[in-house]
Specification:
With 53 residues, the protein is mainly alpha-helical. The protein has three helices and no strands.
Amino acid sequence: MADLTSRDRVMRWIAGLIASEGENALWVAGAHMLITKTSLSFSAKVWWAIVHA
C-alpha cells in the first residue's frame, strides 16, 4: 500500500465518519461556517465556474 499523505488520511477519516454517522450527523448538517468562493483554491474555483455556468 502506498504511503498516504496526511491529507489523504484526514479525507479517509472524514469519509468514514460520514459513512458511519450519515449525512444527517449534527457536525455535517449543522455546520456554522460558510464556504465562500474566495476561500477556494484555483482548481476548485474552476470547477465552481463550470458547475454554475
